[in-house]
Amino acid sequence: MPVRKKRCLLSGKTVRSLDAFYDEIARQLAFPEHFGRNLDALWDVLSADIEGPIEVVWKNPDSSRLDMGRDFDRILAVLKEVEKARKDFRVRLGK
Questions:
Q1: Which letter does DSSP use for residue 55 in this model?
Q2: In whole angstroms, what is the distance from residue 83 CA to residue 89 CA?
Q3: Domains and CATH numbers, the chain
Q4: Is the confidence at residue 2, as pLDDT, over 80?
Q5: What is the pLDDT at residue 3?
Q6: Residue 7: in which H helix or E strand, if any?
């Protein structure tokens, strides 16, 4: 039986802060309760705790980037590192 892909759909219209990002990704991918809501914990959960395949789609990312500044870049860097580390993890930025 094929494994069902987990998908997280983020929107720049609603993800306007680090807290909003953590709320959305944790809810949509069913993060464990021990998730620490920081970038190290994000790496830990995405790289080891959540089974794949996983796809994170961030629509209107420029809106999030404007509102979040460097936090957006830090999040994206972690997501890209997870993508490099896992063959079953993808990040897509789109309109």
A1: E
A2: 5
A3: 6-94 (3.30.370.10)
A4: no
A5: 73
A6: strand 6-11
